[in-house]
Amino acid sequence: MRRMALSVASTNPLAARDVSIQAKKAGIRTTRAVTRAVLSDIGNSRAIPTLAGAKKAATLVQPVVRASNIEECRVQPLPAIPAGIADIDQQDSDNPQLCAEYAPFMYGYLRQLERQLAIRQDFLKGCTVTGKMRGVLLDWLVEVHQQFKLLQETLYLTIYMIDKFLESEGLTIKRNRLQLVGVAAMFTASKVEEMYAPEINDFVYITDNAYSALEIRQMELRILASINFGLGRPLPLHFLRRNSKAGDVDVLQHTLAKYVLELAQLEYELAHLTPSLLAAGSLYLALLLLQQGSQEEEPWCAALEYYSTYKVDQLHPVVAKLASLVKAAPSSKLKAVYNKYLSKKFLKVAARAELTGPKISQLTEAS
Predict the structure, then answer these.
(1) Which end of the chain lies in a sparser environment, N or C, as judged by fewer CB atoms within 10 Å?
(2) Residue 293 φ/ψ region, left for φ over 0, alpha for ψ in the -120 to 50 degree band, beta for the rest
(3) Where are the domains of the chain?
(4) Is the dihedral of CA 171, 176, 180, 186 positive or negative?
(5) Secondary-structure breakdown of the chain: helix, strand, coil percentages, each rounded to the nearest 5
(6) pLDDT by residue (tens digit) across 237-294?
(7) Superfamily for the 236-365 domain
(8) Which band of pLDDT confidence, cut at 50, 70 and 90, is reported for residue 47?
(9) Neighbours of 100 (CB within 10 A)
(10) What is the third-level CATH fold of 122-226?
């Protein structure tokens, strides 16, 4: 077995040379390269380094992150669960795949991350690309998304990549290249989210050969470089699923909230809102419209307020804007989302009478 022990110099001569040079600069005498210990060499016979030696070695190592940055990187979970509110992760404690003990920290991290990767308000100001053009592009991408039968996460990640790219490079993008930005973003998002992503030639075909595969690759690289490969932004669906679990909502309420949330993605004026706020507002509107029994009872319960971190007063302005989108959807020129949620797969929630009744008008007038 000792013949199998390779020295540092034999495995990587360049690394051994760099180590020797750094040691000489630090004033440390070097001897032969230390061989890697095999199983028979591991034991307590080695000399234990002294405290002085440890301090000297520590001075040669520069910290990667400053102490001030460490404090900023710490994720704070929600405060302790108040009395009367159920622990929604307790029921998942027997399933290790759901990581129930980490859930509060994970969602705390997602809320921190969405603030760091926020979209600037009015990010298309001064650009040749307008908010209406953005809406037309996203409406078309919703149809492409359906045709390719992609996951919902792929669509939301595509929209984020487009907005984040236009936020920094919008002044340099001409109108005839906007569709190229859209297909390149969806091509990249598919590779991130899908198990079997569409091929690049599929996106060439879907644009009627307006752009070549090389142009899509080049735009993909440009988008990734512009957003600094920041593909980890939390999506509204992540928070919506968490909120739906906290509120113990049914399938119809959750599907209606998804419809409202997807309508909001096409609205330029709402693009700067955080995913968690849009998810909370969409679910609150769905609960208001499908409310059963007494209309005076507040559907946004204490559990939803705790797990979403939003109070009712914070949601009212967002709900009013979302209600106006829902009311105008049947007569809007951008009908991809509306037609999508008319299908049986999504319980035909777009055709429900509650979306055109007096309740939606009352909520719209509140804006």
Answers:
(1) N
(2) left
(3) 122-226, 236-365
(4) positive
(5) 65, 0, 35
(6) 999 999 999 999 999 999 999 999 999 999 999 999 999 999 999 999 999 999 876 5
(7) Cyclin-like (1.10.472.10)
(8) very low
(9) 17
(10) Cyclin A; domain 1 (1.10.472)
